[in-house]
């Protein structure tokens, strides 16, 4: 049993705390947001995540998981995890480290006895060293090590990924924290690779992984564009190349471009990190550029079908950046909606998302109308745009959808729906990576 504190209760911090508590550790989650802590104390999970509510309730009852707004309480643990956000700085495109620095500055004077400070937030190479210097400057007596253990979980599958990680990367320049960290990660021994590296390597592994996956997506999206011109089908291509075990099937789904809180931010940050070291990362630069352009192209694609309709009504299914989350940060769906409204002033948008409506409202305000379910969204619509890959969209009753729509047009930028079924029902169906009339 290890005494752990987690600073920051977002999409990484909260599931991480729940998972460690479930393994019998004593966990205290700290967040400055008092309203959030109040909700968590009242048993509300505050974010949508598969498997989280059940596990959360279990550990809350066991007394292994507690919450606080006090840094002093968090500073008392043996292991202090920092899981605050490192959002993109919109001007410099670098990771914004203000929250990391604020935590380090607040923590520093409160440290007594030896502490292991783990940075789990995605941070540029050298941040571990910077945090260590900052703490040392504020409190020269503090006895501590700063370790980098990046988090690779996917939103929506946070609990599954925390319990079944492909690897756990532990970056430390000191031997001292390793025994305690080995004790903490003992339950994964033999089930997951434990990789010990230099601190800088651990920091870079996270960016290099995310950028590689983002590049894989931009690559398949380019091939998808080619398919639309040359008569091949991207679904066959993805299967055909994915069967090569050196390539693998994962992250070969064509779509509206990658989004979310990680890929867009981390590709930009990696480019900037390399730039600082005088290295030109042209593959990453192209990945970013292609991804940006794709969201504009998707809006044009939808608009092409409605450009000649007076006051067209567009039904939008999906606002989250992907299925299984309520997160709309850097969501392609939101950007497509904004782009569409920018190129066609006459358009009315009726939107539905199973989980992300509340978060989407903070970004889109009253630019769209929010519908209670997927059928309400298609009522009187000229076109249905499928923007997020929620399973329930594929399972919809399309005879009912057809009866609600003014024009039976569908643009599916997730290649989610059953093409043959839709054609039988008389829909004009457009998906990615296939010539329209094939
Ligand atoms: C990602 C990484 O997978 C995870 O390891 C890291 O810790 C955080 O960033 P996440 O952002 O939750 O996780 O989502 P992910 O499932 O990786 O999808 C990212 C984006 O890529 C989404 O917009 C998704 O729709 C898109 N995507 C993913 C594709 O367009 N095609 C694919 O084949 C896979």
Could you describe the 3D structure shown?
The protein is globular and about 70 Å long. The model has no long low-confidence stretch (mean pLDDT 97). Helix 5 (98-107) runs parallel beside helix 6 (127-138) and helix 12 packs across helix 13 (332-343). It starts with a strand and ends in a 7-residue tail after the last strand. The protein has 18 helices and 14 strands. Strands 3-2-1-4-5-6 form a six-stranded parallel beta sheet, with helices on both faces. It has a six-stranded parallel beta sheet with strand order 11-10-9-12-13-14. Helix content is 43%, strand content 14%. With 438 residues, the chain is α/β, with parallel strands linked by helices. Strand 7 (167-171), helix 8 (178-184) and strand 8 (193-197) form a beta-alpha-beta unit. The chain has helices at 13-22, 34-41, 52-62, 71-74, 98-107, 127-138, 158-163, 178-184, 199-230, 234-242, 263-276, 282-306, 332-343, 357-364, 374-378, 391-394, 398-404, 419-424, and strands at 3-7, 26-30, 65-68, 79-82, 115-119, 144-148, 167-171, 193-197, 313-317, 348-352, 369-370, 383-386, 409-412, 428-431.
């Amino acid at each position: 049993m290890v005494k752990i504190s987690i600073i920051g209760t977002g999409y990484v911090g909260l599931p991480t705390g729940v998972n460690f508590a479930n393994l019998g550790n004593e966990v205290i989650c700290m967040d400055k947001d008092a309203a959030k802590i109040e909700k968590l104390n009242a048993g509300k999970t505050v974010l949508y995540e598969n498997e989280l509510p059940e596990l959360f309730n279990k550990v809350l009852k066991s007394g292994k998981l507690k919450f606080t707004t006090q840094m002093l309480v968090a500073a008392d643990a043996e292991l202090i995890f920092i899981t605050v956000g490192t959002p993109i700085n919109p001007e410099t495109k670098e990771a914004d480290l203000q929250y990391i620095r604020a935590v380090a500055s607040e923590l520093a004077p409160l440290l007594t006895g030896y502490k292991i400070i783990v940075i789990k937030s995605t941070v540029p190479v050298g941040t571990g060293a910077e945090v260590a210097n900052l703490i040392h400057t504020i409190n020269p007596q503090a006895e501590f090590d700063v370790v980098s253990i990046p988090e690779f979980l996917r939103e929506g599958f946070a609990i599954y990924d925390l319990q079944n990680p492909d690897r756990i990367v532990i970056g430390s320049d000191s031997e001292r924290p390793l025994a305690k960290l080995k004790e903490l990660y003992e339950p994964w021994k033999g089930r997951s690779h434990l990789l010990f590296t230099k601190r800088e390597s651990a920091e870079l592994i996270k960016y290099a992984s995310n950028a590689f996956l983002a590049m894989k997506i931009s690559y398949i999206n380019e091939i998808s564009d080619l398919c639309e011109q040359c008569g091949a089908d991207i679904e066959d291509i993805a299967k055909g190349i994915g069967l090569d075990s050196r390539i693998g099937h994962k992250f070969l789904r064509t779509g509206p471009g990658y989004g979310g809180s990680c890929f867009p931010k981390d590709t930009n940050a990696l480019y900037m990190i390399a730039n600082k070291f005088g290295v030109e990362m042209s593959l990453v630069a192209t990945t970013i550029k292609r991804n940006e352009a794709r969201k504009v192209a998707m809006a044009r694609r939808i608009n092409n079908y409605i450009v000649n309709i007076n006051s067209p009504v567009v039904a939008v299914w999906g606002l989250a950046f992907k299925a299984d989350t309520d997160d709309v940060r850097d969501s392609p769906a939101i950007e497509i909606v904004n782009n569409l409204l920018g190129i066609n002033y006459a358009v009315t948008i009726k939107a539905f998302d199973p989980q992300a409506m509340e978060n989407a409202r903070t970004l889109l305000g009253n630019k769209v109308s929010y519908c209670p379910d997927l059928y309400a969204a298609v009522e009187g619509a000229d076109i249905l745009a499928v923007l997020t890959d929620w399973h329930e969209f594929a399972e919809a009753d399309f005879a009912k959808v057809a009866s609600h729509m003014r024009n039976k047009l569908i643009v599916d930028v997730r290649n989610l729906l059953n093409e043959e079924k839709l054609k039988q029902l008389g829909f004009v169906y457009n998906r990615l990576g296939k010539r329209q009339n094939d």
